[in-house]
Amino acid sequence: MLNSFYKKGTIEAGCDEAGRGCLAGPVFAAAVILPEDFKDDLLNDSKQLNKKNRDRLRIVIEEKAVAFAVAKIEPNDIDKINILNASIAAMHKAISNLKTKPQHLIIDGNRFKPYDTIPYKCIVKGDSLYLSIAAASVLAKTYRDEYMVNLAKEYPEYLWHQNKGYPTYAHRKAIAQYGITEHHRKSFRLTNNQVDFSLTQ
What we know:
Elements: E1 12-18, E2 27-33, H1 51-64, E3 67-73, H2 75-81, H3 83-96, E4 104-108, E5 120-123, H4 131-152, H5 160-163, H6 169-178
Parallel strand pairs: 1-4, 4-5
Antiparallel strand pairs: 1-2, 2-3
Helix pairs in contact: 1-4, 2-3
């Protein structure tokens, strides 16, 4: 069982992002405030869960959370401000959309910028240590995956319904063959010279 709170006795929100290492699509972030008595043995870092369990947990989290919010920053903005700043901006956006204002924030990772005057703590691998960060990781990932699956219907050649925009061989090969879309992050290295993209023998 993960820890309930970093700072007990406060209204604490956990924050995490999804899609930071992708070549296409927005970066998503979520902020979640859980009740003091929240318990779920299945809840863990979303990367450690299969899709079925993530989808089940999303329903549980949304039903039981004191407050939750999910936000995204689009590829054009990622290109303008870089992916780290975009990830933090997405977290800020999610925090601002919470219906209950948190008194303390716990952030997955080691980089953040102050939001308003709310104190915060960055926690490396926080999504495997604290329930609210794990919950935020589940929401950010499930919302982003859903977004990319829908986007894949418009751009089936990039297989986003499978790779979700991550730099798989198939995704990079499609970029080499078809070029980039408005959903690709132009500031990222979209092709890999070490991969043979030749389509002929």
